[in-house]
């Protein structure tokens, strides 16, 4: 596959993984927790490097998953000790992120990670960091990592679809039915952390947030069915990746930033023109109603 | 190290930088307190991230690095982001958290796009905009710091002057509107203040962590006081200290961004506050809790024994004491706790062992248990009729003893007790003038 | 046989008791109204029975066995305001959630489950709305969907939290006839209710609750002025109006 093809594939995998996981976060009103975790995985990555002394993907995944779940746990802990939830999120992610940045500045010289990379990712380098087994060329490592996480996400969602759905819609009912709501919560947090860290290398911390939230929000305005929402969200993610890549090559700017902008533009168009929940259609419906009653 | 420290104290620019971060910390602590109480902590986060494209556009228009242009650009794009966040919530079914995250990340993404564009245009990092991401206080020059300080002082003055209006706005906006305060205007003002403090903090703290300057000092201060005016002052002090501390550390360590150090300093103060603050701190609470638990267990055991005694009394029978299992079935108490409580009660001569794991009250214990039971049952009827007696406000004030209530109310409550059939029936010997005495106490316990 | 037995249930938030040593038993096949003033702990009682709020003490038995073993026998209708009706799902899907307890892990609802859910929707007169997004339903229709979901649970004991709040007259009637139908099938239904006017008409048993259990039993014996006074306490002006209700008929 061409250089360009690998980048587009990587971007699409990020779009699909984030788009799918993001839907559940939006429906559970935890979008800001996504923001928080996408920042704190930096600490997980740096920590994993400092402990294992290697930049292998697997260590990073483990480190990020641990820190991601810790973030969710700390937020919960602060919240239950009386700190209001928005402030709890704010305190936890900024402090863990700050520690991550400090560690990176202190030891970053030895790592090929730097702060810019952490923020923006380096999708342009992805095709060069390849996986070879017994001398057989298997494509970029990032693609394998993202693919594995995506498959894992899909398996989890497939297996626990109805449990995730009911505990998102009506947690009380879920508890009454005997569904372990807390387990589902941390399962989602784990998926979120893995997805974030797998995407992190390609698109960076902040833009993971864009890919997590924007496609889901767009899909939320286009459909009233959860399964359809997941599919639309994944499609919007892929579309953002493609559009972002082409914008970036035309203007010679950051690819990941352009993906976020593309996602934003798609959302803005949906916000106005969505046939069911768009500004325009609702305005027209109201007009029609007024005319009828007049 | 000591040399650099000396140079800090003598270098005029560094002194200015320190004054700047001090004022910045003060202003963000003050304004952050209001943002926190208005539950708008994360709006500050969105504004800070959203400032990045504004800074870049300002650079593109002006063509050179200029603090005043940066501040204007950042403020405009921050306010625009807030506007979008509010409109998205209002005009669609999207909820607040999603709206904030969406606007924040798209604006930031656009900022990154512009940043890479500028960096490619101006060959390398000539623009100095990179410093805005994590903050680099050392890169501030005299004129910038003076501008930042001036804006910070202005924000502080506005906050102090409008303190009571802002207080009312955060506490009870409806009431504020009722007494004719222009709440829309005040809300806008608070937003402007938040934007103001965010934009002047960007150079020192950076867009990503600026929100912590608003949140962390304020939330730390919340542990030390119940009063808004004190909270605002403490938050300001914590902010100022963190600002100075972070700046000092960052200027002495090469290549260390200022923002994260300031935030870590503030977070450490927050953690200390959370654990050690008097009254609200976790440690005090834990001590209080364990003391309370012991006291509650003691009262529960006495009351349970009383309940059992009462049951026997009503049925005209005397058993051979009450089994530990029986108590545990009635009250949520662990066996070890129960035995601890019973043995300490035995030492106080309030209970007596009547057999293997069998216990009964002594006459002295009965008196004590009677009062506990009376108080609890009075509390019960009080709570059941809370609406009628709401003006006594017992629930707010845990220390208030029901037996201290006005005589008239107490009589009423006792009347109600009788009506509900919840009057404690077994009276201690002294109070039991002429009534049937419970003979366990008449014969054995009385001695 | 007693369908529900509640033993010594105490619930407290911090130190303040919300429910104090509530114990009662309910025979099978009764329609029970749980009545009491605001803040008396009516919803909390249901939630404590279902394990949605932690109990400080006490036990709950359904047909003689602990609740946890009998979950499948229990249906629940929460307050309508407790969920986000913007959730992307339709009425049929919500009703199908009632089947989740029976379906078990990893499995999807079968065709039979869907048919059953449809029949439940039909029973509440909502069959035509099966594919309607839930936010496009009126308050009464949303309540009916919740009821259908409880029916889909195919339970023997039902707990309903304020099902009559904010519904239209037609829905109220529909709910009542449904409740009577359930009773006729020998099922037990406990309903949190706050409208004293309709108690005599709707329920054959009442549980009067104000932090403690005040009284429980057949409506004509239990729903007396004296018990109401105990339940509603000093709010005598209010009770004077109710006086007429108790004495009418």
Description:
The complex is a heterotrimer of chains A (294), B (447) and C (249). Chain A is mostly helical. Chain A has helices at residues 3-27, 31-52, 57-80, 85-107, 115-120, 141-169, 171-176, 181-203, 205-220, 226-251, 255-273, 279-293, and strands at 130-133, 136-140. Chain A has a two-stranded antiparallel sheet with strand order 1-2. Chain A is globular, with a radius of gyration of 20 Å. The model of chain A has no long low-confidence stretch (mean pLDDT 88). With 447 residues, chain B is mainly α. A 3-stranded antiparallel β-sheet of chain B has the order 1-3-2. In chain C, strands 6-7-8-3-9-10 form a 6-stranded mixed β-sheet, with helices on both faces. In chain C, strands 2-1-4-5 form a 4-stranded antiparallel β-sheet, with helices on one face. Chains in contact: A-B, A-C, B-C.
Biggest chain contact:
A-B, 59 and 59 residues
Strand content of chain C: 25-35%
> For the terminal residues of chain C, how far apart are their CA atoms?
31 Å
Number of helices of chain C: 10
Main β sheet profile of chain C: 6 strands, mixed
* Helical amount of chain A: over 70%
Strand content of chain A: under 5%
Which shape of chain A, going by the Cα principal axes?
Answer: globular
Strand arrangement within the widest β-sheet of chain A reads 1-2
- Tell me the structural class of chain C: alpha/beta
State the order of secondary-structure elements of chain C, H for helix, E for strand. Answer: EEEHEEEHHHHEHEHEEHHH
Instruction: Give the beta-strand count of chain C.
Output: 10
The radius of gyration of chain A is 20 Å
**What integer is the average pLDDT of chain C?**
88
In quaternary terms, these chains amount to heterotrimer
The count of strands of chain A amounts to: 2
Shape of chain C: globular
């Amino acid at each position: 596959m061409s250089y360009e093809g690998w980048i587009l594939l990587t971007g699409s995998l990020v779009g699909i993984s984030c788009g799918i996981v993001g839907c559940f976060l939006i429906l559970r009103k935890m979008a800001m927790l996504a923001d928080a975790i996408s920042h704190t995985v930096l600490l997980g990555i740096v920590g994993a490097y400092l402990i294992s002394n290697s930049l292998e993907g697997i260590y990073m995944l483990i480190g990020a998953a641990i820190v991601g779940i810790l973030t969710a746990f700390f937020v919960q802990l602060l919240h239950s000790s009386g700190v209001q939830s928005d402030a709890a999120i704010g305190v936890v992610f900024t402090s863990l992120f700050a520690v991550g940045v400090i560690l990176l500045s202190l030891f970053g010289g030895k790592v090929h990670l730097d702060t810019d990379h952490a923020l923006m990712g380096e999708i342009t380098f992805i095709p060069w960091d390849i996986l070879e087994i017994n001398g057989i060329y298997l494509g970029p490592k990032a693609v394998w990592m993202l693919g594995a996480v995506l498959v894992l996400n899909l398996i989890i969602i497939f297996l626990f679809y109805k449990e995730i759905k009911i505990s998102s819609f009506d947690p009380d009912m879920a508890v009454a039915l005997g569904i372990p709501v807390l387990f589902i919560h941390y399962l989602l947090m784990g998926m979120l952390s893995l997805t974030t860290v797998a995407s992190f290398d390609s698109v960076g911390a902040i833009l993971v947030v864009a890919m997590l939230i924007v496609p889901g929000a767009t899909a939320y305005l286009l459909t009233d069915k959860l399964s359809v929402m997941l599919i639309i969200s994944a499609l919007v993610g892929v579309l953002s990746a493609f559009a972002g890549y082409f914008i970036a090559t035309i203007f010679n700017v950051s690819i990941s930033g352009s993906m976020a902008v593309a996602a934003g533009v798609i959302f803005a168009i949906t916000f106005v023109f969505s046939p069911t929940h768009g500004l325009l259609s609702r305005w027209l419906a109201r007009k029609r109603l007024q005319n009828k009653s007049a | 190290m000591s040399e650099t420290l000396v140079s800090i104290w003598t270098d005029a620019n560094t002194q200015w930088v320190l004054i700047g971060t001090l004022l910045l910390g003060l202003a963000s602590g003050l304004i952050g307190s209001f943002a926190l109480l208005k539950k708008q902590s994360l709006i500050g986060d969105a504004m800070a991230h959203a400032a990045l494209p504004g800074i870049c556009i300002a650079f593109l228009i002006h063509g050179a690095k200029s603090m005043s242009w940066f501040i204007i650009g950042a403020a405009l794009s921050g306010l625009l982001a807030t506007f979008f966040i509010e409109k998205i919530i209002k005009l669609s079914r999207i909820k607040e958290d999603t709206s904030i995250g969406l606007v924040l990340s798209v604006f930031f993404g656009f900022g990154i796009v512009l940043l890479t564009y500028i960096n490619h245009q101006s060959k390398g990092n000539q623009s100095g905009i990179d410093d805005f991401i994590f903050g680099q206080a050392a890169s501030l020059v005299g004129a910038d710091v003076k501008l930042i300080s001036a804006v910070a002082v202005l924000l502080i003055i506005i906050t102090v002057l409008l303190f009571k209006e802002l207080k009312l706005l955060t506490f009870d906006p409806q009431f504020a509107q009722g007494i004719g305060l222009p709440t829309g205007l005040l809300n806008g003002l608070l937003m402007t203040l938040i934007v103001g403090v965010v934009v002047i903090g960007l150079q020192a703290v950076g867009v990503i962590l600026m929100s912590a300057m608003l949140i962390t000092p304020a939330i730390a201060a919340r542990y030390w006081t119940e009063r808004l005016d004190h909270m605002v002052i403490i938050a300001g002090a914590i902010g100022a200290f963190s600002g100075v501390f972070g700046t000092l550390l960052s200027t002495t360590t090469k290549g260390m961004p200022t923002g994260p150090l300031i935030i870590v300093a503030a977070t450490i103060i927050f953690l200390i506050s959370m654990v050690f603050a008097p009254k609200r701190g976790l440690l005090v609470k834990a001590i209080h809790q364990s003391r309370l638990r012991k006291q509650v267990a003691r009262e529960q055991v006495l009351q349970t024994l009383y309940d059992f005694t009462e049951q026997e009394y009503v049925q005209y029978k005397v058993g051979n004491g009450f089994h530990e299992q029986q108590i545990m079935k009635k009250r949520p108490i662990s066996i070890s706790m129960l035995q601890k409580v019973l043995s300490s009660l035995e030492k106080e001569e309030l209970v007596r062992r009547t057999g293997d794991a069998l216990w009964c009250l002594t006459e002295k214990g009965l008196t004590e248990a009677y009062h506990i039971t009376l108080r609890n049952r009075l509390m019960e009827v009080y709570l059941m009729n809370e609406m009628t007696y709401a003006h006594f406000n017992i629930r707010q004030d845990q220390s208030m003893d029901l037996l201290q209530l006005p005589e008239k109310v107490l009589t009423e409550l006792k009347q109600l007790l009788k009506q509900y059939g919840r009057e404690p029936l077994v009276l201690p010997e002294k109070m039991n003038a002429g009534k049937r005495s419970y003979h366990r106490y008449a014969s054995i316990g009385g001695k | 046989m007693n369908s529900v037995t509640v033993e010594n249930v105490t619930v407290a938030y911090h130190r303040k008791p919300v429910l104090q040593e509530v114990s009662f038993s309910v025979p099978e096949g009764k329609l029970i109204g749980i009545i009491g003033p605001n803040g008396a702990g009516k919803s909390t009682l249901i939630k404590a029975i279902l394990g949605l709020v932690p109990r400080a003490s006490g036990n709950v038995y359904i047909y003689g066995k602990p609740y946890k073993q009998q979950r499948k026998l229990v249906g629940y209708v929460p307050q309508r305001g407790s969920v986000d009706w913007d959730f992307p799902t339709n009425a049929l899907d919500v009703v199908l959630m009632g089947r989740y307890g029976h379906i078990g892990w990893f499995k999807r609802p079968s065709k039979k489950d869907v048919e059953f859910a449809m029949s439940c929707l039909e029973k509440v007169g909502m069959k035509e709305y099966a594919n309607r997004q839930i936010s496009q339903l009126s308050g009464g229709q949303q309540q009916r969907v919740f009821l259908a979901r409880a029916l889909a649970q195919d339970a023997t004991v039902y707990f309903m939290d304020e099902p009559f709040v904010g519904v239209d007259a037609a829905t109220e009637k529909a709910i009542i006839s449904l409740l009577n139908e359930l009773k006729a099938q020998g099922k037990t239904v406990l309903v949190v209710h706050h409208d004293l006017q309709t108690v005599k008409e709707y329920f054959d048993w009442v549980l009067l609750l104000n932090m403690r259990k005040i009284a429980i039993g057949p409506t004509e014996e239990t729903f007396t002025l004296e018990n109401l006074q105990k339940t509603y306490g000093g709010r005598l002006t209010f009770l004077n109006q109710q006086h007429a209700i108790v004495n009418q008929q």
